[in-house]
């Protein structure tokens, strides 16, 4: 048996075999590819086969098949073939590695973008549907911006707030100016309109401390007076009359009301009286927004209320923020209800008849009222002294330095005796 060599057509491994393996199918001992062992190139040509000839004998056991030395390196296998050299290793391609790395980098970038988008979507959902508090934006606050206007109230609510305000004060102090223009020509034909200006000062304290002072110029003659209590009695003095002690506060304020045209006496009633509602004295109060009404007084936004007092108009301006009265206006010219006029006493009828003939108004405006400040009782005493002239002395029935008589307390139904006194009568005595 001769030995020859051949190569695997797949991996080019050199394989050694004997001629006995020629024509036999084997597996390459390296790449396991099925191959047919070629014929031995050195073997003699086989004799022609005859019909009925027996098959070739089996391959003897001593024949062998081995790997011949090869330039291609392959890993060793546990077969019966013997390699005569290192197997030839094919050079690996790196294309798959590069493609894999590229795909992995792309996936990583996509994951980053996906999670970032998912975070933004979650934040938007939380801000829109869950988180209800808006982000706080720090801004510079303009302290000069006025506060929003208070809500509008009904007339009854305004009057109740005014009542509660004055009822809850411990002290009240204010100064004001009154302007009067009264037409008395229906009583004295040809008489000029009575113009006057009056300064008023009012201080009120608990429980029975007060001081009202006024000074006015009517025509050419100045006129002043005062009513007060410093805890040692109630006193009134005006014009040529020195201070005189009164029975009580109510009598003193009624006398001062008759002697002056000070509308602020109504504020004293709000401060002291248990039934201190304006509605007790004024009928048909209602808010007014007429074209001739100014809702702002001394820079204060006000409710303007219009009512009737003894058939005349009474208009008050109430501060919307403090519910303190900033201005009062009394307008003459009303007509008394016939049913009320019928039930009056003759003296009262004469007084109201004259009042109905007057035309004009008194407007009293207050500046910067102060509340709840500490005021000593002695501070309520007035330094009033009567303004004496020769005419005053004669009118008072005195002479030669004689002191004038004390001011008489106003009696119910007393009728003023001069146009000047008529203009000072704000409301009838109750």
Blueprint of the fold:
Blueprint: E1 3-7, E2 14-18, E3 25-27, E4 34-36, E5 65-67, H1 95-130, H2 155-167, E6 171-183, E7 194-205, E8 209-218, E9 221-229, E10 234-238, E11 241-246, H3 249-259, H4 265-272, E12 283-287, E13 296-297, E14 300-309, E15 312-319, E16 325-332, H5 338-342, H6 346-357, E17 359-371, H7 390-395, H8 419-424
Explain the overall architecture.
By secondary structure, this protein is α+β, with helices and mostly antiparallel strands. Helices cover 23% and strands 28% of the residues. It has helices spanning 95-130, 155-167, 249-259, 265-272, 338-342, 346-357, 390-395, 419-424; strands at 3-7, 14-18, 25-27, 34-36, 65-67, 171-183, 194-205, 209-218, 221-229, 234-238, 241-246, 283-287, 296-297, 300-309, 312-319, 325-332, 359-371. Helix 2 packs across helix 4 (265-272). The longest helix has 36 residues, at 95-130.
Tell me the structural class: alpha+beta
Roughly what fraction of the amino acids lie in strands?
A: 25-35%
Radius of gyration: 62 Å
**What would you call the shape?**
rod-shaped
Quick one: biggest sheet? 12 strands, antiparallel
Distance from N terminus to C terminus (CA atoms, Å) equals 162 Å
Quote the average pLDDT. Answer: 74
List SSEs in N-to-C order. Answer: EEEEEHHEEEEEEHHEEEEEHHEHH
* Unreliable runs: 59-64, 70-90, 396-430
Helix content: 10-25%
Query: How many helices in DSSP terms?
Result: 8
DSSP strand count: 17
